[in-house]
Amino acid sequence: MPHHDTPHPLPLPSRPWTRKSFLRGMAAVGAAPLLPGVLPPAARAASDRPDFPLVRGGAAVELYVDAADDPAVIRAAGDLQADVERVSGVRPALRHTLPDTAAAGLVLVGTLGASPVVDRLVAQGRLDVSRVKGRWEASVTQVVERPLPGVQRALVIAGSDRRGTVYSVYDTSERIGVSPWYWWADVPVPRRETVTVPAGPLKRYEPSVRYRGVFINDEQNLTTWSHRTQEPDKNIGPETYKRVFELLLRLKANYLWPAMHPYSDFFNKHRENPELADRYGIVVGSSHPEALLRNGVHEWEPWAEEHRGADGTLPVYDYTVNPAVISDYWRARAKQNASYESSWTIGMRGLHDSALETKYATTIPEKVAVMNDIIADQRRILAEEVGAAAEPQIFIPYKEVLELYNAGVQVPDDITLIWPDDNHGNMRQLPDDAERARAGGNGIYYHLSYWGRPKSYLWLETTQLAKVWQELRRVYEHGVDRMWIFNVGDVKSIETGLSFSMDMAWDVDRWGAEDVGDFLAEWSGRQFGRRYGREIAAIRTEYYRLAAERRPEFIDPGVFSVIHHGDEAGRRMAAYERLLARVRAVGAKVPEQYRDAFFELVEYPVHGAYLMNLKHYWADRNALAVRQGRGAGTNRFADLAEAAHTEETALTKRYNTQVAGGKWDGIVNPYPSQIPKAPGRPAVTRVARQETSGLGVAAEGNETGASRPLSFSSYTRDRRFLDVFNTGFLPLDWSAEASHPWVLLSSAGGSLTEQTRVWVDIDWARVPEGTYDDATVAVSGAGQRIEVPLRVVNDGERARRRARGFVAAHGYVSIDAVHTERRVARGGASWREVRGLGRRTGALEAVPTTAAPVTADFATRAPELRYRVRFDGAGTFPVTVFRLPSLDERGHRRLAVALDEQPATVLTGQSVATGNRGDAWARNVEDGVEKLTARVTVDEPGEHVLRIFMVDPGIAVDQLVIDTGGLPAAYLAPPESYHAEFNPDPDRAAGLRSY
């Protein structure tokens, strides 16, 4: 098992150095960002010796790699040769014999034990390979003076094994400005006449996770693109896999589950594929339904046809019916791929990701016995056909197989257990102490893209990086460090998430709970230039936050309220509009050569998500207009919904036909033909034109009319709306009048054909203290007069300034969980803030995730969150905790709620992924939160303390809402309540505007 002991930079005597301070120092002198997992042996290393010039004065230093080194190393050296040319325009010579003439410099690329010249430098004590030699995929890059006769200086790139060398080669490429995404995302390579790299030594120590890779899955768009642009005679073949393999290596990945759907060519169909993988140094495995590298979608049917029974019947893929035919089927592939570095999936499921078929085993114990027989048979095949090289072997307890595993399947100790998430980024269960002690170790199969229940998300990358961080950190703390596999769909839309996941897989300690934004800034800076890094990171963070409220692929009619909380859906659209404006501002500044990459990585995801939400927002307004009896305005909303869908279609067409000269033809398609689609054109209703007019009014909080008064509080200083609309098609004149001079209207009247939104404010400086239920806004027109009631509560400016904690208003209290009065650690556990997680700015997680549950004596044993709340009345009120979904199928997901010193109520969340539609688990993954409700009793108005206790570790709390008697039903939590420190201006924070 790899030993991960990457150190932090050593301190200088006079000044402490941290990772962040070192990065700031590097940025200050204009140096390249520190590469993932590469740390200098001392902070002073950069200034000790002059940089090594790869290109100077129009001449490039030659590259040398021994002809006997591994083919993967020789091939990667060729990529370095090309990368130097990309940067400088000068192509260095790549040689396999040492120079016999004097040279000022030479790049020596070699693997320890496979490169005599490198081994000689080590033996002479001139190349520091401490904590590199003998390790897994480790490396050192270091300048050595006078390494060979006639050579003044050499940049030595040396790895502990073949991939260690390859990664160090690509480190050098990235250090000179070649992004891993230079081809896959068209990130331009800055041109320079002089190209240098630090003298080092710079070391890449062992990775946190031994096998790190991706699953290309649900790949219809990738197949379409590959067929159109790469290999017209194939559906994902060697030319495409060359690009995939190179990208993986540049990202420091080493592992692949290849494409496997019916519309793709199966991997072994083209014998060049496994040969190429071996030449690149990529370990090829197969997914959970593909035992022993067999693709059942394509390969079983012809095999069965060739192995009909004596009576001519076709054998079925059922081990209880014809084990011999299936065993021979597996054996043929083991024999065929025995010479390649492969990963062997053990166990069995049905064909094409279906459940295990066992005609003659109907009970769970019987199925367990069958699975044990299958594993024994497969192990025998591997021992006979592959021998000792048949590693790693993996067992994936996915869906129904997890149930069988928990019921007693015996997995040999040297097999790696691959734990799946629930397909939506929540780990289903993690290894216990006995499983952590297994020789084969543990891994995970994690989804960044998914086709299946309850909804699919295949179009855009929308999983918050902070969510990825939270779950990956949790699995690592549970000893899962042997293999991490990420489902990346078509590859193309997962650029940022894949980069982050590979960063964490290499060095899980590099990014902390507060650092995900730093990753985004550093990564964006590497793609577009440091000056844009922070703003692009902020854009991506807000993009992920909006998706955490609801993925764009999960949009349904009527999800967001268009009548409550200042038009909840409209506020969301306003946030998207502000975000898109920021995107356009940055896009106008980035140099022309970066425009394609910016569109692919930043603009298209934000703009596409905005339009997906926008068309459904207008469709929801259209549906409401029908219920309200609007006339011309109903059709206007229908037009707007369809216009947004048309714009979204045009945006995707631009991606596929114009960006990068049409390079990505077919790669992006929200509406593929053979896999689940994103929400398409929304249904709208139009009404027939009538030569009439009529006045209609709908006040905020009401679908029609104004029976629910508009509520105003001097604490929140709200702004409320009322819609004035025409029930016909002919223009009408209307007017609005307030009953009190301190009631302010955004519009007092005019001529109206469709509709208008009038905003109502209060001039708090003119309102006498007290409660007013007699204020109104009267709207007149077409011979009608409609009164809208207001309720205005003014406790005065002094009370507002002196209020402590969150103040109840409008019948509720809404709190962002990170805004605590106090956080109390107990029993070795505490709450940590994970920035960028959840629906607001961050969430609080109970850690360590391996802590023991606390089931009693919470006030003395459990870590606690405290919130000061000012109630305006007494009573028993529901308290809803918005927790972020997490699972534990062998345990519980619990927390406890109390008020003041009252007994705590334990709330139990969903801990099991059912895989169903419409149940609690399905709602949780669609909503991105689970709402757990307790009741607390407030004996008297005034200040109280709301307390949240950890029961089970790993629980993450996002928001808290207390219903004191007026909370309307809406999808999101209400805008956060007034708090003198955390939220002194709620109306501004809520982002209210006319939409």
UniProtKB/TrEMBL annotation:
<protein>
    <recommendedName>
        <fullName>Gylcosyl hydrolase 115 C-terminal domain-containing protein</fullName>
    </recommendedName>
</protein>
<dbReference type="InterPro" id="IPR031924">
    <property type="entry name" value="GH115"/>
</dbReference>
<dbReference type="GO" id="GO:0005975">
    <property type="term" value="P:carbohydrate metabolic process"/>
</dbReference>
<dbReference type="Pfam" id="PF17829">
    <property type="entry name" value="GH115_C"/>
</dbReference>
<dbReference type="InterPro" id="IPR042301">
    <property type="entry name" value="GH115_sf"/>
</dbReference>
<dbReference type="GO" id="GO:0016787">
    <property type="term" value="F:hydrolase activity"/>
</dbReference>
<dbReference type="Pfam" id="PF15979">
    <property type="entry name" value="Glyco_hydro_115"/>
</dbReference>
<feature type="domain" description="Gylcosyl hydrolase 115 C-terminal">
    <location>
        <begin position="805"/>
        <end position="976"/>
    </location>
</feature>
<dbReference type="InterPro" id="IPR029018">
    <property type="entry name" value="Hex-like_dom2"/>
</dbReference>
<dbReference type="InterPro" id="IPR041437">
    <property type="entry name" value="GH115_C"/>
</dbReference>
<dbReference type="InterPro" id="IPR006311">
    <property type="entry name" value="TAT_signal"/>
</dbReference>
<keyword id="KW-0378">Hydrolase</keyword>
